């Protein structure tokens, strides 16, 4: 089996397309800055989460570039191969979940535009989504490993 083709399976453009949709959602939420919301009134937690979302978008768009090329299968360092495959898998999972977090933040930007701070609700929403996504991912790992409890 060709290693480069196997790595290309992990680098499929689906995550890049989802990241572009996420970028569009973040740009859509920034429309509130044009229609009444002052940048100084944007809360710290929304600024930080938006920056983290933009970093995730950048990393998932950068995975389209092949950083490591495995030319000779006999001379391949297995540790580098496993770490690279693990990195691509994590980026794919996080990039896919990122769109849901960005979409839910639109509601909180609109609430801030109307001078309503919903920090407690945002925190509950964020933690709930994080726990659900982590459990869903863990369930998928158990399903793949075929562990019976």
Describe the structure.
This protein is an all-alpha fold and 149 residues long. The chain has one domain. The two termini are 33 Å apart. The mean pLDDT is 86.
Identify the notable features of this structure and list them briefly.
149 residues, mainly alpha, 6 helices, 74% helix, 0% strand, elongated, transmembrane helix, DUF5079 domain-containing protein, DUF5079
Describe the largest sheet. none
Cα separation of the termini:
33 Å
- Assign an overall shape: elongated
Which residues sit in consecutive blocks of at least 5 with pLDDT less than 50? none
Helix content: over 70%
Following the backbone from N to C, one meets helices and strands in this order, namely: HHHHHH
Transmembrane segments: 20-37, 43-65, 86-110, 122-145
Organism: Staphylococcus edaphicus
Pfam family, one: DUF5079
Protein name: DUF5079 domain-containing protein
Task: Describe the structure concisely for a colleague.
The protein has one domain (3-147).
What is the topology?
Blueprint: H1 3-10, H2 14-29, H3 31-34, H4 44-62, H5 78-113, H6 119-145
Helix pairs in contact: 2-4, 2-5, 4-5, 5-6
């Amino acid at each position: 089996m060709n290693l480069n083709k196997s790595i290309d399976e992990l680098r499929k453009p689906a995550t890049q397309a989802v990241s572009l949709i996420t970028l569009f959602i973040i740009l859509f939420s920034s429309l509130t800055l044009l229609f009444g919301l002052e940048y100084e009134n944007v809360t710290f937690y929304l600024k930080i989460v938006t920056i983290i979302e933009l970093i995730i978008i950048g990393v998932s768009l950068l995975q389209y570039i092949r950083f490591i090329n495995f030319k000779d299968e006999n001379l391949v360092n297995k540790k580098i191969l496993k770490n690279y495959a693990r990195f691509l898998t994590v980026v794919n999972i996080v990039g896919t979940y990122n769109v849901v977090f960005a979409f839910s933040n639109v509601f909180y930007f609109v609430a801030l535009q109307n001078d309503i701070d919903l920090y407690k609700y945002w925190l509950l929403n964020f933690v709930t989504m994080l726990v659900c996504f982590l459990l869903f991912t863990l369930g998928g790992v158990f399903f793949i490993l075929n562990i019976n409890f």
